[in-house]
Amino acid sequence: MPALPASGYVVLGLLDLFGPSTPYGLDRTIRGGIGYFWAFPRSQLYGEAARLARRGLVRETREQGGRQRRL
After folding, report:
1. Helices (H), ranges, 2-71
2. 10 Å Cβ neighbour count for 59?
3. CA-to-CA distance for 34 and 62, rounded, in angstroms?
4. Residues sharing a CB contact under 8 Å with residue 52, sequence separation 6 or more, in sequence order
5. Is the confidence at residue 44, as pLDDT, over 90?
6. What pLDDT was estimated at residue 1?
7. Which of 14, 30, 37, 49 is buried most deeply by CB count within 10 Å?
8. What average pLDDT does this structure show over 1-26?
9. Average pLDDT over residues 35-61
10. For the chain, what percentages of helix, strand and coil (3-state, to nearest 5) are there?
């Protein structure tokens, strides 16, 4: 399996530290911390979460009702 880009390691690290989250929640966490010194585009974050799920490195679920956000 090829190595992950730096953004993949950031997402995995945040999930390990803070537990399950939506991509929006991850974005808020990044903007409140490492976002001050590393530009992390929101589109890259959403795409990275999906790539990690496809590789089997994270498990993705959807809310049953409401907005059906990805967790």
Report:
1. 6-18, 23-31, 42-54
2. 9
3. 27
4. 4, 8, 11, 12, 58
5. no
6. 66
7. 49
8. 88
9. 85
10. 55, 5, 45
